[in-house]
Amino acid sequence: MWIPTEDDAVEMFARYFHAVHKDLVSSRAKKTAESLKTKGDLDGHEIWSRVAGKIERRQQVHHQSQKRHAQLVVAQNSTGQRREAGDFHEPTVP
Fold first, then answer.
1. In the predicted model, is pLDDT for residue 83 greater than 90?
2. What is the pLDDT of residues 55-72, one digit of tens each?
3. Which of 18, 41, 70, 73 is deepest in the core (most CB within 10 A)?
4. Is residue 35 classed as helix, strand or coil in its secondary structure?
5. DSSP assignment of 38-59
């Protein structure tokens, strides 16, 4: 039987929380962490802070991936060859 580690639980909650809260996910996780800290639940605060950190790292990777994809837009020239954006040099005519 598989028993999740604390890191597994953080990852699972980060994914779940993102699925439920979408764009507000990072701020909601941070608010949850701060709420727990205010109530004196330092263990809960630590875990939710880790969840918020995991969410932020996942969002950074996602944004970097989108940026990279936008930079690597593939186009076809007249011969059907695939070239990356920025790799278009018009041939010089003698």
1. no
2. 888 888 877 887 777 666
3. 18
4. helix
5. HTT-HHHHHHHHHHHHHHHHHH
Strands 82-84 and 74-76 turn out to be: antiparallel
Angle between helices 25-38 and 6-21 (to 10 degrees): 120
Q: Are 8 and 16 in contact (CB under 8 A)?
A: no
Nearest to 69 by CA among 81, 87, 85: 85
Structural contact between residues 73 and 84, judged by C-beta atoms closer than 8 angstroms? yes
Separation CA 14–CA 10 (nearest Å): 6
Q: How far does Cα 12 stand from its chain's mean position?
A: 14
Per-residue pLDDT of 1-17, as tens digits, reads 889 898 998 999 888 88
Measured CA to CA, the distance from residue 16 to residue 48 in angstroms comes to 13
Q: How crowded is residue 35: how many other Cβ atoms within 10 Å of its Cβ?
A: 13
